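Input chain follows. Return structure tokens only.
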Amino acid sequence: MKRVLFVLTSHDKLGDTGHRTGFWIEEFAAPYYALFDAGVDITLASPLGLQPPIDPKSALPESQTPATVRFNGDAVLKDKLAHTLTLKEVEAGDFDAVFYPGGHGPLWDLTNNEASRLLIEAFVAQGKPVAAVCHAPAVLLHARGADGKMLVDGRKVTGFSDSEEAAVGLTHVVPFLLEDELKALGAHYSKGDDWGVHVVEDGPLITGQNPASSEAVAHALLSRLA
């Protein structure tokens, strides 16, 4: 049985707006079930452990998908989610891959988290896939390869686009624009249509542009695990 680590944000404040954020349910649930239904053993972790915050907007009626509906009625998964391990409790050697769901939360706490960075670098050094969707490719911004270069330098990647951030009205709220930061580090950033499915693979990295891309990222990861 293959083992995959999911790393979720512990950050719940949307800048100085007074609103809440966290992880986006679709970006967690769709990949989780795609892997779970394929027989993958999944462990959940977060910087602070226990219950990661859920972005309340991802629970609104207009954000519902078959995966979120399944999640809403899944008491077993909700209990598992309420007891995530801390990042310091997990090691890359115990897993075959790592998956980072998005939501705005990771921009604040996982981008600069040393334990997360070291974990990513360990997965890459061991030749294991690192998958991230929507805002979660931000976790790659400070990671380096074995050659000391920035991990995304010269690699093809995607992530939540500037135009999508503008569309949700948060350009001046987020600490940085992910598309711009990836490009500044030398990544070959690409995007598809706003809110459409777009997945990019390069070396160990599998990245998805937005919530609609989350399940496709999971299927790309399953292909690697197979």
